[in-house]
Amino acid sequence: MTQLVFKNPYRPGAGHMPLHLAGREDDIAKFKALLNQETILSNPLITGLRGVGKTVLLETLKPIAIREGWLWVGGTELSESVSVSEDNLVIRLLADLSIVTSGITQTVVEESAGFSGSQPKNVVWSYNRLMHLYQETPGLHSDKLKAVLEAVAVAVRHLNKKGIVFAYDEAQNLADNASKDRYPMSLLLDVFQSIQRKGVPFMLALTGLPTIQTRLTEARTYTERMFHVIFLDRLSAKETREAIEVPLQLTQCPFPFSEKSINTVCEISGGYPFFIQFICKEAYDTWVQQHENEGELSAIPVEEILRKLDSDFFQGRWGLVTDRQRDVLKVIAQMGINDGEFTVSEIVAASETYLIKPFASSRVSAILTSLTRLGLIFRTRHGKYCFAVPMFGKFVLRHLEDAPDLIW
Ligand SMILES: Nc1ncnc2c1ncn2[C@@H]1O[C@H](COP(=O)(O)OP(=O)(O)OP(=O)(O)O)[C@@H](O)[C@H]1O
Ligand SMILES: [Mg+2]
Prior knowledge:
The protein is α/β, with parallel strands linked by helices. It is built from 16 helices and 9 strands. The strands form 3 sheets. The chain has a 5-stranded parallel beta sheet, sandwiched between helices.
């Protein structure tokens, strides 16, 4: 029996860097162009559906920015707790900033109380110093934060760095909460817009689900001009092929996928990066087992892999929705729009075809709002809706096939 020494080269999983990042050259080039701005007028906003590769792209941009002479701050997720208040946001920003600034020593002349007059002394931009300056500065949160960032900008200039990129993932979690009088998102936007206008080279690089665009515009209308949107789409057939083949080449695996198998992966993954990694990993594992049993490499076991994908990826999300919400999702799925847009009136019209008792539009609107809150769908800028999870409609259709008596 042959003992295989190859490790599975595919990496499905949130934020797991693929061995080869396929098809993102144009997006990387756009980011590099933004780094070359004399004054920062435009900040990158990376958006796209679940699993399309936002986190790994952001991670890829970090060494690029550092090579180009920038410092990189953050890279962490903006959790909902950061959104709770302006104070939480400030703590997050200053804690992240201190990681790069704590290496910066600056000679300052501080007024001292005695007769000895002013003495130059070396200070380190530690978290405590950043926080101290923040607390000592009079005014609103935004005045305080601007004062800290502007002071750090002076120190950074002496380091011969081009500036600092503040990178935050899952930025759709950052939202204002008017009912509680909390405005962390507006604070972040106001501060960066203001310091950038003064020529401070600090750039915001945000990633998030497509809802983020609406959230930003709701907070501040000027964000349309402040951000350059990099929309990550599914990979083309050529790029999907690359995502499948290059990891095998890089690990010098002598057993490539057959032409037929590649076509199958292209088709059932829809070109979505997470699905490509998932399907290839499963196919490869199946193949290794067969090989160990001296078996022949057969075609990709599509049915079994889809079933595993359903239980590992989709089922958890389906488990969050109520029966009433499921009814609406089933109608949307039957409309066959795949990952396209849909409206309340289209769903109402389709329900007349599929249901004995069609939906009222008020009911559909309310359910779409609750599904948006769950992160399953989002409202596009044209006031229509889309699934936030790719190929969710297809999953619902498979689910219907499995349990047709549960439908209506
Ligand atoms: N360009 C790419 N080529 C190959 N694989 C990729 C590519 N982009 C992402 N992947 C793979 O897709 C999966 C999802 O990537 P990632 O977690 O970055 O997506 P995401 O958009 O951040 O998802 P979420 O919205 O859930 O946070 C990972 O397994 C990653 O390795
Ligand atoms: Mg992510």
